[in-house]
């Protein structure tokens, strides 16, 4: 039973880490990440023996198992094993009781005054991570919270789970769309589902959600992140059906310049410039993407907004590196790549961003191991479109 538990723990660690641990550099980066997350110290050799040389004579110590369990959100290895056991044996009646109790006390009863309340967002974040231990609960959980204001605002709109777009989060967006019928919600949800369809190369889905999302018109009351998603969906649609993008690019720029000084109370995880520059990069408009990257960097210098954090900072650096690599500035791209720590990517998009990061690294160092890692991550996410990025 312990051997099975250790293997389950290793799988969970790799899931939190965002990549398989198959190299010395991955082992060292995991050590660093564990220290950054929990301030727990664990040696490189301990990690290497456990993940790369699993048939070593000595079993991992209790300390090692507890540290790794703590990294996964459990207080100890025993707590991890108990959680795994409960997730496989808990009956439906008790599942329902746990879920209803959680929803009632958390999403329905807590009043949150600010949309960018970072404390509440962190609690929702931990809830998402914990729920992955109970996959049978997730569908019911999403169905219920889609009916609540906090669930709509913080779970679906505030913490967009890119890595799970082709999984339960993408399915949950349908519940969200069924419950929240406002114009802005419909634009937001269908734009994200258009993005999902583009990533998995489902052209019919791209067309369907593009048409549903763009049946509405943006106006001054539309929040800038939703405007960005709206335009991103149009970029993906034009890309799939080989339509000229020039007039759309001009329209996006004009719209952005009219709203960029407008200050909104919105999640720091979602901002117009990052959403747009990322979409432009995916459809190979690198020079235009550079404009929006420069804009977000300038805003950060002026401290206009509070959405520059560690994970977002790493993402912006990654986008800059990709743009430079494709616009004849390979030396600058390489220098930026050297400073990027992929283990600081947001847990919501760690697999997705790791695909982009490892793909751009291929330009400078064509490693078979990185290629295998890319293919593994594409299989995990289903984002087959990224195999050609």
What's the helix and strand layout?
Blueprint: H1 2-17, H2 24-38, H3 44-51, H4 62-71, H5 77-89, H6 92-107, H7 118-131, H8 135-145, H9 149-158, H10 168-179, H11 183-199, H12 203-213, H13 224-240, H14 246-259, H15 272-282, H16 286-302, H17 310-325, H18 330-339, H19 350-361, H20 368-381
Helix pairs in contact: 1-4, 2-3, 4-5, 6-8, 8-10, 10-11, 11-12, 11-13, 12-13, 13-14, 13-15, 15-16, 15-17, 16-17, 17-18, 17-19, 19-20
In short:
With 389 residues, the protein is mainly α. The protein contains 20 helices and no strands. The chain has helices at residues 2-17, 24-38, 44-51, 62-71, 77-89, 92-107, 118-131, 135-145, 149-158, 168-179, 183-199, 203-213, 224-240, 246-259, 272-282, 286-302, 310-325, 330-339, 350-361, 368-381.
How would you describe this protein?
By secondary structure, the chain is an all-alpha fold. The protein has 3 domains: 2-89, no CATH class; 90-159, no CATH class; 160-388, Serine Threonine Protein Phosphatase 5, Tetratricopeptide repeat. The protein contains 20 helices and no strands. The longest helix is centred in the middle third of the chain and has 17 residues, at 183-199.
**What's the CATH class label of the largest domain?**
Mainly Alpha
What characteristic shape results from the CA principal axes? globular
Tally the beta strands: 0
The major sheet is characterized as: none
Radius of gyration: 21 Å
Strand content: under 5%
* Straight-line N-to-C gap: 43 Å
Number of domains: 3
In round numbers, the mean pLDDT is 84
Helix content: 55-70%
């Amino acid at each position: 039973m312990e051997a099975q538990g250790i293997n389950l723990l290793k799988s969970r660690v790799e899931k939190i880490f965002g990549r398989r641990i198959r190299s010395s550099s991955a082992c060292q980066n995991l050590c660093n990440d564990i220290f950054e997350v929990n301030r727990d110290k664990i040696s490189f050799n301990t990690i290497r023996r456990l993940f790369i040389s699993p048939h070593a004579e000595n079993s991992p110590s209790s300390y090692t198992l507890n540290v790794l369990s703590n990294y996964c959100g459990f207080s100890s290895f025993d707590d991890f094993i108990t959680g795994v056991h409960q997730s496989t044996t808990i009956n439906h009646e008790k599942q329902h009781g746990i879920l209803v109790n959680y929803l009632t006390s958390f999403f329905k009863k807590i009043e949150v005054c600010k949309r960018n309340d970072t404390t509440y967002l962190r609690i929702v974040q931990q809830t998402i991570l914990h729920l992955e231990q109970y996959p049978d609960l997730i569908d019911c959980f999403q169905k219920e919270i889609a009916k609540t204001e906090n669930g709509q605002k913080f779970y679906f709109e505030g913490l967009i789970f890119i890595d799970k777009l082709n999984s339960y989060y993408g399915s949950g967006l349908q519940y969200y769309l069924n419950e929240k019928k406002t114009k802005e919600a419909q634009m937001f949800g269908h734009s994200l589902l258009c993005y999902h369809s583009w990533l998995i190369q489902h052209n019919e889905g791209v067309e369907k959600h593009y048409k549903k999302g763009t049946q509405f018109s943006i106006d001054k009351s539309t929040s800038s992140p939703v405007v960005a998603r709206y335009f991103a969906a149009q970029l993906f649609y034009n890309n799939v059906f080989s339509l000229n993008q020039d007039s759309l690019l001009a329209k996006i720029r004009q719209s952005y310049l009219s709203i960029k000084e407008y200050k909104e109370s919105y999640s720091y995880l979602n901002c117009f410039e990052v959403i747009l520059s990322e979409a432009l990069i995916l459809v190979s408009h690198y020079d235009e993407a550079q404009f929006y990257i420069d804009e977000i960097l300038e805003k950060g210098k002026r401290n206009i907004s509070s959405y520059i954090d560690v994970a977002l900072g790493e993402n912006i650096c990654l986008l800059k590196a990709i743009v430079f690599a494709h616009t004849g500035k390979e030396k600058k791209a390489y220098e930026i790549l050297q400073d990027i720590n992929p283990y600081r990517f947001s847990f919501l998009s760690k697999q997705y961003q790791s695909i982009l990061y490892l793909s751009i690294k291929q330009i400078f160092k064509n490693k078979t191991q990185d290629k295998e890692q890319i293919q593994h991550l594409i299989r995990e996410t289903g984002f087959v479109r990224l195999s050609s990025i």
